[in-house]
Amino acid sequence: SPVVQSEYREAHDGHSSAVRLNDVVFALHALVLTAFTLLQVAIFYDYPPLLGSDKVLRIAVVASLVTLAAGSAGSEITLAVSSQSAFSWLDYFMVLSEVKVVISLLKYMPQVWMNYRRKSTEGWAIENVLLDFTGGLLSVVQLVMDAGLSHDWGAITGNPAKFLLGNISMLF
């Protein structure tokens, strides 16, 4: 959005953001796939039938997601209708990107723990690891190349989520 781009330039000495069309398309692609996955979860909500403790966990997860969505929607509405807001759209998106980095880091932990505990990676598809690594590598390479071509190495720190997510994907 022009507003966010303007806020970015103000915050980064007039330099433009390193976010490109392919970054936006990738995010939209992820949104569609996540929505499809959530639709499947909703359709097959209680199949197979859940035990008592699993039902409590499922309800807690749904309640957390609803609370998160409501809080996010509230923040967006506040930003949209307020001319004098406590934070900018850029700040809002930076917070969302930080949340994404933390969630991505945490999502790898159960698999790492299980592999450590079993002292094995049996049953873990290497293809997914290679795809994650390749995607992370290409993402970081693109960010570094964009920064180099624009002679603005601050573009890397201006988009910390892309840099961190790429490195997390390669690390795990």
Automatic annotation (TrEMBL):
What membrane topology term does the record carry?
Multi-pass membrane protein
The organism's place on the tree of life at top rank: Eukaryota
Molecular-function GO terms, alphabetical: L-cystine transmembrane transporter activity
- State the InterPro entries in the record: LC_transporter (IPR005282), PQ-loop_rpt (IPR006603)
Protein name per the record: Uncharacterized protein
Region forming the signal peptide: none
Q: Which residues cross the membrane?
A: 24-44, 56-74
UniProt keyword list: Membrane, Repeat, Transmembrane, Transmembrane helix, Transport
Compartmental location: Endomembrane system
A GO cellular component annotation here is: endomembrane system
